[in-house]
Amino acid sequence: MQKLNVVRLADDARSVTILDQTRLPNHEEYLTLKEPQELWQAIKSLQVRGAPAIGVFAAYAMAVLAENETDLGPAEFLTTFNEQADYLNTSRPTAVNLSWALQRMKKTAAAHQDLPVPELAQCLVEEARAIDAENREMCRKIGEYGVTLIHEGDGILTHCNAGYLACVDYGTATAPMYMAQEKGLHIHVWSDETRPLLQGARLTSYELYKAGIPVTSICDNMASIVMKQGKIQCVMVGCDRIAANGDFANKIGTSGVAILAEHYGIPFYTLGPSSTIDLSTPSGDDIRIEMRDPEEIGSMWYKEPMILPEIEKFNPAFDVTDHSLLTAIVTEKGIVYPPFDVNLKKLFANQ
Ligand code: MRU
Question: Which CATH number do you get for residue 257?
């Protein structure tokens, strides 16, 4: 299958090119970026999106900013670099991968600050490329563990897009689906449309269809009927931040799907790399939920407003699923079962 290039650093590391995900599925368009403000805006506006892809993009963005500032003196270079990292970090609050990648780039800069600036910038480019490569490998391993949870003929429901478009490679929630296909298992994916920005309809259905994986797109309020009709054997979703007790933030609507899955006795899994696990956040109550432009609900995708402009709108971009609803967390280091507070610490305390 021909995958689109989600995030790519230019050979001279002076710009980063992204697939503009706000234009999918009807237009495959790319944007080449290098200025701090446009890099920030690309994350904010979801031109690049999905927790792992945001992390990889942020690392490349910092490499580009470094490479374009090699004429600065060492002290000024480091101060500017750290300020730009802090600025990018303000673009979106919920996915921990953003601050994780920026932190890693800042640490690399600090560790090599005695080098001449062009060499320091080169170290930063290499670090960003390493983050990208590690992310791809983590997604592949998540797929290998996750596919052990899938059986021949299974129906799998997913929410939002935690596919390769969100991760640069196999994806997280979709990784076991791609692996199942490679193994010759027959599965059917049910893709929630994911109001208000339609990542499920526009992106997940699109990428799975293009990959030849059977997929049916449903509105969010149809999840219950397909579960009740026995079409769903498990739910697999991505995650933006997993707290120490196993509560996790993911796209708005995820927690409702988890509640439905429990009602119908269907296993519910979240899948994510270690860069999404945040043991410094004790529980879901401590996760900051991004609030977005209310017009995304009422008018953004419609020819005419579907809600009168004067009516108040509420648009949280994520919700938190309680760990009690979660069957297991699939990571690149293995499948984590309850008690999550104990078992997450065992695998990830030293990372
Ligand atoms: O707002 P988005 O489109 O960036 O939200 C994406 C999600 O919520 C994904 O499910 C999550 O980032 C996991 S991606 C592997």
Answer: 3.40.50.10470
Per-residue model confidence as pLDDT tens digits over 203-222: 999 999 999 999 999 999 99
The alpha carbon of 249 and the centre of ligand 1 are apart by a number of angstroms equal to 9
Residues 99, 119 within the same domain: yes
Distance CA 300, CA 42 (A): 17
Domain end marker among 140, 165, 183: 140
Atom of ligand 1 nearest to the CA of 163: 15
198 C-alpha to ligand 1 centroid (Å): 11
Active site residue 20: no
Same-domain pairing of 195 and 316:
yes
Whichever domain contains 132, its CATH number is 1.20.120.420
* φ, ψ at 332 (rounded to 5°): -75, -10
Q: Are residues 29 and 149 in the same domain?
A: no
Q: Measured between alpha carbons, how far is 250 from 253 in angstroms, rounded to an integer? A: 8
Please name which of 21, 29, 107, 97 lies closest in space to residue 57, comparing C-alpha atoms.
97
Q: Is the CB of 49 under 6 A from ligand 1?
A: yes
Last residue in a domain, options 140, 160, 183: 140
Q: Is any ligand 1 atom within 6 A of the Cβ of residue 238?
A: yes
pLDDT tens column, 18-57: 999 999 999 999 999 999 999 999 999 999 999 999 999 9
One domain, residues 68 and 102:
yes
Structural domain range at position 156: 143-347
Contact call for residues 160 and 254 (beta carbons, < 8 A) = yes
